[in-house]
Amino acid sequence: MQFPDYIKHERLKQWVSEMVDLCKPDKVHFCDGSQEEYDQLCEQMVEAGTFIRLNPEKRPNSFLARSDPSDVARVEDRTYICSISKNDAGPTNNWMAPKEMKEIMAGLFDGCMRGRTLYVIPFSMGPLGSPIAQIGIEITDSAYVVVNMKLMTRMGKAVYDVLGEDGDYVPCAHTVGAPLEPGQKDVPWPCNPTTKYIVHYPEERAIWSYGSGYGGNALLGKKCLALRIASVMARQEGWLAEHMLIVGVKEPSGRKSYVAAAFPSACGKTNFAMLVPPKIFKDEGWEVTTVGDDIAWIKPGPDGKLYAINPESGYFGVAPGTSNETNLSAMESCAKDTIFTNVGLTDDGDVWWEGMTKEKPAHAIDWKGNDWTPESTTPVAHPNARFTAPASNNPVLDPAWDDPAGVPIQAFIFGGRRSTTVPLVYQAFNWNYGVYLAATMGSETTAAAFGQQGVVRRDPFAMLPFAGYHMGEYFNHWLQFGREIYNPPRIFSVNWFRKDENGKFAWPGFGENMRVLKWIVQRSHGEAVSVESPIGWIPNYENLDWRGLDFSRDQFDKVMNMSLSDWQQEVLLHEELFIKLYDRLPKEMINVRELILSSLWRTPTNWGPTHE
């Protein structure tokens, strides 16, 4: 096999050769990340029926893909952490002994690319050459994966220059698991409908994925490397790999603060990352800019501050519910150069999904390729339909988003989807309380992962599906990490999803979240006023900036209401998680829980702001 001259890494060449021998592809293509290559592969997929080219006048250089109905989301029950010791994976991950799993994977990968092309994708998670970045090499038989990786990562020849002759890289092996016999006709979305494995070997820092062509299962730089493997690296090397967006907040004075926020999937992460401040704030000079919308890698800098990069270079956003009203910047980000997956196709060659416009199209083709009209009983787009768009399309991209040194983090925010119990905002009393707040975060389940919807599940740090080792050890890493920094970021909880007695959202959300963000930024600089509640510091009505919004004191009291009986119930649910993690749960978690319980016990039932 002929390797390009620019690949000088012998260990890498050996690995690729071994994978070619195992997978038995018809051809091998070394991706160079060029625009020509991207255009050629997109054209090839249009011819194969995988892509539909959208109307160039409405969506320049954009395409629609429809996946197999069995391949529409991350498959958490088929995702494994194969550490040598079962205890290291912990009770929140699926585990199998590496030796056993390797035998299964070797059997599945044997000849898995027959009739297909093996693509070798060099990519960097993070700006090329950044001290926080990591390099991966993915082999795949999916052109869909190649073009998505071009948008989502720094992908191309330049990666080999950084890698040199003996640099470290994470080997990522992916196949759709659908070999073609001679003369067999391919399908538009090849995958293995019945057999899927997404496998991580933390000690070897390697990833193998079989049977799925869908985003998080197939774009191995994303959740697999950037969270599951990187979280293991981070613990060993003293940094953090987190499921967090990063935003810059610029005040009228010119002061710029960066905030990182962790929300479970489908809790408004992309909307918050691209928040458009209310007009009165904009006119005054407030600006919110995006560094990243999904993943943050955070390392201590020489000055004692924490610096974060977005390891990705694009957005893999949930389409349904995204509109000019809810997220104008996301709509502009996917206006061109975008790959859409599982959305509707309109008669004029554009895309449409639920919530995109008030007026529905009279006719469209749904994500399964069937006719659809507003009278149809099924949605036009899958609830987890996606757009892959380059970050450079984002009109509110932060000027420092690509800075190899990263941006300094002033505050951490955690927030799930809770219709009751958790108030709109509160600040943890200190770092230990903050880790407790994040560790016990719960969210009502959504469509981003296969399974039940509407049940509260604990999602510690929004990392439940993504931590590559025991969750109790992960809490411990956070506790230790904060102690080693002289002045760690402040930690806050938010909940945009409180509902009123009629089941309607009690908080307007979206751009209005700026009012809460302003208080958070000022608190993180030790400036805004707060009150001590049983669970943390909270603002009074007059501590938030209400200009331009008609939101009464009574409405505010409802979104901030802390029902003591609800909270006592909540603490019992925390206990369920702690029992699960018992063997490696840090003592601080039990101690903080006791202090919260004591505060709740001593608080009168009618506790709350008093109004003159």
TrEMBL record:
InterPro entries hit by this protein: PEP_carboxykin_GTP_CS, PEP_carboxykinase_C, PEP_carboxykinase_GTP, PEP_carboxykinase_GTP_C, PEP_carboxykinase_GTP_N, PEP_carboxykinase_N
EC code: 4.1.1.32
Cofactor: Mn(2+)
Residues involved in substrate binding: R74, Y214, G215, G216, S265, N384, A385, R386
Gene from which this protein is expressed: pckG
Stated family: Belongs to the phosphoenolpyruvate carboxykinase [GTP] family.
Residues that hold GTP according to the record: A266, C267, G268, K269, T270, N271, R386, R417, F510, G511, E512, N513
Known partners and oligomeric status: Monomer.
Protein name, entry field: Phosphoenolpyruvate carboxykinase [GTP]
MF terms in GO: phosphoenolpyruvate carboxykinase (GTP) activity
Residues annotated as transmembrane: none
Chief location bin: cytoplasm
Annotated positions binding Mn(2+): K223, H243, D294
Catalytic activity: oxaloacetate + GTP = phosphoenolpyruvate + GDP + CO2
Stored PROSITE patterns: PEPCK_GTP (PS00505)
Entry function: Catalyzes the conversion of oxaloacetate (OAA) to phosphoenolpyruvate (PEP), the rate-limiting step in the metabolic pathway that produces glucose from lactate and other precursors derived from the citric acid cycle.
Metabolic or biological pathway, per its Swiss-Prot or TrEMBL entry: Carbohydrate biosynthesis; gluconeogenesis
Keyword GTP-binding on entry: yes
This protein's UniProt keywords: Cytoplasm, Decarboxylase, Gluconeogenesis, GTP-binding, Lyase, Manganese, Metal-binding, Nucleotide-binding
The Phosphoenolpyruvate carboxykinase GTP-utilising N-terminal domain, residue ranges: 14-235
